[in-house]
Structure formats: C-alpha cells, structure tokens
Specification:
Length: about 475
C-alpha cells in the first residue's frame, strides 16, 4: 500500500516538474523608427545626463522647488496611485499562493449520551456519557501542467509593474501641471505691474484732458476716449486678479490643500525663472523611460499571459487530493489515537461547457490585440509630443528674438513721438497709439517667455522627465 502510494506521488511529481506552458509568448511589437530627432543634430548623451530626476530645479526658483516637494507628499492623485500599487502587490501574493498546495485541518470533541448502558457489576441499565476527540485534514493540489497558474502569476506581476509606471506617470503629470500653473501666476504678477503702470499713466492723461475740456481747449470726445481707455485697463487689472486667484486654488488642490488655503507671494516671471537650456539633439531611447509607454507594454505582457491562461483552461487538469482523520477519547491523545489517511490523484476533463472556454480564449486574444494597438498608439503619441515640443521651443525662441527687436524699435519711436508732441508737432492721439502698441508688445514678449518655460516642461514630460522612488507604505 505504501509502495503504491509512493509510486503515485512520484508519477505526479514528475509530471508536475515536466509541465509545459501553452499559449503565445510575449514579443515586443515592431515599430517604425523615428529619425527626425537626429536631423536636428546628433547627441551622444545618455538619458540620465539629459533628464535629471529633479529637472524643475533648473528653472532656478526656490519657491517652485518648495511647492513641488509639498505636492509630491500631499497629492491626492499620487496617494490613489500608491494605493493601486499596494492592491496589485497583494494580488501577486494571492497568485503566488495559487501555485502551492492547500491544507486544511479541523479538530473537535464529540459528546454522546445513552440511556441503555449496562453496569457490569450490577447488570442494570443506566444513563452513560461518551466523548471522542476528532481531527480531520484535507489536502488539494492542482498541478500546473499547462502553465495556467504560472501565466496568471506572471499576469499579476505585469499589472504590478504597470501600476508602478502609472504612479511615475502621475508623478510627472503632477509636477508638470504645478510648474505650468506657477508660471502663469508669475506671468500675471509681472503683467499686473505692467498694466498698473499704464493704467496710472492713462489716469493722469485723463485728468489733464478733463481740465483742458473744462477750459474749452479740447472737444469732449477726446475726454471720453481717454476715459474709455482707463476703464479698459482697469477691467484688465480685475481680470488678472480673478485668474490669479483661480490658479492659486488649482495649485492648492495639487498640494492636497483646500482651495483658498494658499497665497503665492508676488514676483516677476522673467526676474525669477530662467529657461532651461535643452541639448541640440535628443537620443530617441529617452522614450523608453516614459511611464505611459512602460505601463502600456506591461499591460500588453499581461494580456499575452491571459491568453495563455485561457488556452490552458481548456485542457485537462491534474491534481492530488488527500483526506486524513484522527480519533481519540481525549484531545491530548489524538497523536496516538486511531488514524486514517488517503491520497489519490485527480483528473478533471472539460467535456462540454457550451463553448464558454473557447469564447474566453477568443475574447482574451481580441483584448491582447487591442492592447497591442494601444501600445503602438502610445509610442506614436510620444513621438508626436516630443516633436511638437521641439518645434515649439525652436519657433518660440525665434519669435522671442523678433518681439524683442520690435519692442526696442517701439521704444525709440515712443521717445521720438513724445519729443514731437512736446513741441506741438503731433497730437496726443498719436502718442496714445504708440503707447498702446508698446504695451501690447510688452505683454506679447512676456507671454512668449512663459511659453518657452511651458514648452520646456512639455519636453521634459514628453521624454519621460524625472521622478522619485516609488515607496509602498
């Protein structure tokens, strides 16, 4: 009996050790290479040299660094993504446990009462009590002959890796959104100073016009025109204040604070934030660090393993089942009491299921195909975003130079126009026109500086940026 049991166990263990996997193996999809970056100039730079982990410090603003640090620790989005990592990690443990046998054990006491117990000395019947301690155990083990459980375990590991990549993508998105909102506030601060300056100058002109009109020196329409300009500038000041408050609310939420709890101190954009110099060329392998690409590939790996697991589910399953029992008059005597043990192989043959398993394989294959196209699209979108960011940076640097030349020319014209007006050679209307154009050019140049900062952030984000270590608590 013992020899027969040993032979059976040896047979099934040998079968388990020689188990094979069914279904497709993962291969990274072929993608068309992007050579456009190289046309802008070769760059023999490693990704770590181009993109530092704390790349935002390159803008040289300590207050921005402080906000980013607080956002990373307080962001609700990052906490949600961290929770998903923990959930995926727990799922891995469950999948790993599925590879092992399961063993259950239960113990108890059984009490019986009988009214027909004969006393051996007197020969009379009397009431008697009996008790018995019992122990029962069961063993089950599904041998992974076709790799179904190994596939399921590999799929859960791939989802765990994808969830970590999701966290890094959320980290990068958070820093990018925060930086760009902060740039807008700094632009508003500098533009508010500029608008306030022109507003006060036009108020003074309006006062002069009102006095001249009272003396009958100028017609009323000139006064009304100047007052309209003053009101337009006042409305612009109020609008800038409104937008700034909303941006403060947005940043507060990114930090994990309630709206209205954050007051960003005023400071100039160009005086506090410097553009980060981007290398002439960028190595295309930078995209291998993009979190969304990493997550898309791991989910494709997961989908491939799910196909294999579904195909394995259509095949027979082999396992071992065992039952054991112990009995004694006391719990203490269980180990020396009467015991029985049986272990037997088990085979489950799927005969008819209405085609559900076949349909499940087809569904998993379709899902894998969709996931593959999602991966391809993610990579192509990444190339597009990098190209757009590079084009924007190159174009706006040129536009900024043109705007600066235009502004310098307008300042010379204003100086000449003011001199002519003081000599009475031209009207005040010509002076106002040049002032208005000068003001618009100042705003455009300021806006272009902010666009350059935004585009730099967009480029960091497009190539994968930097992120901190994922810590699962």
């Amino acid at each position: 009996m013992k020899a027969s049991l040993a032979i059976r166990l040896s047979f099934f263990v040998a079968m388990a050790l020689s188990a094979c996997s069914v279904g497709p193996e993962y291969e990274r999809p072929a993608l068309q290479e992007n050579k456009a970056w190289g046309e802008r100039g070769a760059a023999a730079l490693a990704p770590s040299r181009v993109i530092e982990m704390d790349w935002w410090t390159g803008f040289g603003d300590p207050y921005l660094d402080k906000l980013v640090k607080e956002a990373i620790s307080g962001s609700f989005d990052l906490k949600i993504l961290l929770g998903r990592i923990q959930e995926a990690g727990a799922t891995i443990k469950g999948a790993r446990a599925g590879l092992m046998p399961t063993l259950d054990l239960s113990t108890g006491m059984e009490f019986k009462r009988s009214d027909q117990v004969r006393d051996m000395r007197t020969g009379r019947f009397k009431t008697g009590d009996e008790q018995q301690a019992t122990g029962q155990g069961s063993l089950s083990w599904e041998m992974d002959m076709w790799g179904k459980k190994r596939r399921e375990y590999a799929a859960t590991k791939a989802e765990y890796e994808a969830s970590q990549a999701d966290y890094r993508a959320g980290y990068l998105k958070l820093v990018s959104e925060l930086a760009q909102a902060y740039f807008q506030i700094r632009q508003i601060d500098e533009q508010s100073d500029l608008t306030d300056k022109f507003y006060k100058e036009h108020q003074q002109i309006a006062t002069i016009y009102q006095n001249q009109y009272a003396e009958g020196l100028i017609p009323e329409w000139k006064v009304l025109r100047q007052e309209a300009e003053v009101k337009r500038l006042k409305q612009e000041v109020l609008e800038l204040e409104r937008v700034r408050k909303r941006l403060e609310h947005r940043i507060a939420i990114l930090l994990g604070r309630p709206p209205g709890d954050l007051k960003v101190p005023s400071a100039d954009l160009r005086g506090n934030l410097k553009p980060v110099k981007v290398p002439v060329g960028l190595p295309s392998d930078l995209l291998s660090r993009r979190p969304d690409i990493v997550a898309a590939e791991y989910r494709l790996i997961k989908a491939t393993h799910n196909v294999g697991a579904a195909e394995a589910a259509r095949l027979p399953s082999f396992g071992l089942t065992g039952k054991g029992s112990l009995a004694s008059e006391t719990l203490k005597g269980l180990l020396t009491g009467t015991w029985a043990l049986s272990i037997a192989p088990a085979v489950t043959m799927p005969l008819f299921d209405g085609g559900s398993r076949k349909a499940d394989v087809a569904a998993k294959e379709a899902r894998a195909q969709v996931t593959q196209e999602v991966y391809r699209k993610t990579v192509m979108t990444a190339f597009e975003e990098v190209e757009n960011a590079l084009v924007n940076l190159e174009s706006r640097q040129k536009q900024k130079a043109v705007l600066q030349e235009k502004l310098d020319g307008l300042k010379q014209i204003r100086s000449q126009t003011t001199a002519k007006f003081e000599l009475g050679l031209i009207s005040q209307l010509e002076v106002l026109d040049i002032e208005r154009e000068l003001y618009a050019s100042e705003k455009s140049l300021l806006e272009m500086h902010r666009y350059l900062l935004d585009d730099t952030v967009a480029l960091f984000k497009a190539v994968g940026g930097g992120w901190g270590k994922v810590t699962v608590r």
